[in-house]
């Protein structure tokens, strides 16, 4: 409510002092993640992180005495926390709608973090350790658990677990390929394709596994003609005429 | 034809002298690969490689002056050459038969190299460099090219390329999960499941892409009722009754 020009604009120094410990930490991690989005972590210096956060290099060291490896791990953990939330979706309605919403969040994260996402997942980074590998594996496991929860299966057998883990890897691989191909096709198309893939994988696996076969029936019973499964079913049917000689 | 006991048994030293440069190199790489199969490359010392090959440590250094990183890279390149041959299969007969033969070789390689395969592909190894990453990527690209050749597509569109690359990643991921789960299920089951996955992925992708749709029809026309596609089609059909409301 101050009239413009009457109150002094807070200087960076004032802002600097005002941030609490957690806020400052969060700010430094955000600055690091923003830089990792455009360059590989090994090419980003602590000086650049300090400059981006408008603080001194010693301040960065106060928060991350272990230097870049520690900051990198903290940034990775923060990104992992965000990624893990992607698949947390209310367990109501058709599965394809839930997966679509989850993938929109996941792919949005990929889009935003760009090269940083590749660096995190592809490894080969000089700041990579067995601990950072464990964080990435943790994200995969959490995503798989959430997908299994959506399938309402309490005790998933080996084949169902393998199917879900394989699909999670396919999502990851497709995301990396998507970045590699200059973000083509548009995200909604990529999302729909990944949802279709999941249905197709479930169906193919259900052909040889009783538990997965039951899951498929339960999943399909919740789908609607307007949804992704309906569209896929109507589009696949004409192609199947080429399989008549196999039945 | 010598009577046993009359000719002197060749001593290791004799064998040592007889090997040519290429043979010796191949032998050292084989020894390294055998050790990597049971332990991570970073836990294997050059002394152990020398002992396994029954040669001195200086001899190993004569062939690999760069020490372990160089030996590791040579071993990786040798493994990559073997892996690249897996998908080279005559382009005749039903696709599922060709993929099955290729996967039998690929999965046989995984089975034989065990932990070494994980180390190669999962990264996170301290001896990993951007060059070793490029070798692994080269295997993936070669496998994708060979699968595309089996589909008899000269100019694959982005969706078809993405489908094949995603499947290659799924094969890799499933192999790692298979090792992780104590080599369960038996290899032939894993192979059949991966072949089924490929058909399912093609079908789901063909639903939204004209080129892939044509590939699906061409692939199915070559399949026989006794083959994998026939079995899959007959098993999936009953499940699809749960999708009648979507058509």
TrEMBL record, chains A, B:
Gene3D superfamilies: Tetracycline Repressor, domain 2 (1.10.357.10). Keywords: DNA-binding, Transcription, Transcription regulation. SUPFAM superfamilies: Homeodomain-like. Residues 45-64 bind DNA. The keyword Transcription regulation applies. Residues 22-82 form the HTH tetR-type domain. InterPro entries: DesT_TetR_C, Homeodomain-like_sf, HTH-type_TetR-like_transc_reg, HTH_TetR. The keyword Nucleus does not apply. PANTHER family: HTH-TYPE TRANSCRIPTIONAL REGULATOR RUTR, TRANSCRIPTIONAL REGULATORY PROTEIN (PROBABLY TETR-FAMILY)-RELATED. This is TetR/AcrR family transcriptional regulator. The lineage of its organism: Bacteria, Bacillati, Actinomycetota, Actinomycetes, Kitasatosporales.
